[in-house]
Amino acid sequence: MEIDFITDNHKKTKRDYLGRVNKINKSEAAIKAKKWDYDYWDGSRDINYGGYHYDGRWKPIAKRIVDFYKIKGGQKILDIGCGKGFLLYEIKKQVPEAIIRGLDISNYAIKNAKEEVKNYLDQGNANKLPYKDKEFDLILSINTLHNLYCFDLFFALKEIERVGKEKKYICIESYRNEVEKVNLLYWQVTCESFFNTEEWEWIFKQTNYKGDHSFIYFE
Length: 219
Known about the structure:
Layout: H1 7-10, H2 17-22, H3 26-33, H4 38-42, H5 59-69, E1 76-80, H6 86-94, E2 99-104, H7 107-111, E3 121-123, E4 136-142, H8 150-163, E5 164-173, H9 178-187, H10 197-207, E6 212-216
Parallel strand pairs: 1-2, 1-4, 2-3, 4-5, 5-6
């Protein structure tokens, strides 16, 4: 099912798409960003976040997720592409007895994660999750899977199905028209899977992904 928890937050950021390609060397920015280190998280805004610090922006998103999936104490939640753990932190604040786990490819993000959740985070790749079959009651992956090449993406979606039970939610970047396609190409620095919404739906079927999803558009 398509269910959106993210768009309101996404639209709060103003983006100069032409400036992104005219003012910087995009190839150099992408090379730095794909190291998933300081430059990606806390370096220049020209490269990526320009300083990814806790500011409470994930609180309303966490509340929507907690309410929609009726998260209760004792349930196990995995966030794939957890970054510095801000979403997990907000979920844990709202449901203190929830059992959280996060996975990210970036050692830098984990080392600089929110202290309250740092011990629950693992370094790893979404294409091979270090968890047991059907281990988690809810799996989340927000703005991550589009950063995988298609072969790793297929493995990652199958892995999500393997380690998750019924409740799963992923959010990925996509496009519905040529304007959104061009804006995505202009803005991104780490995206590897450039698919429109119909292609994503086809990929879900091919990988037997049965969870929920939403798309981020660059309008």
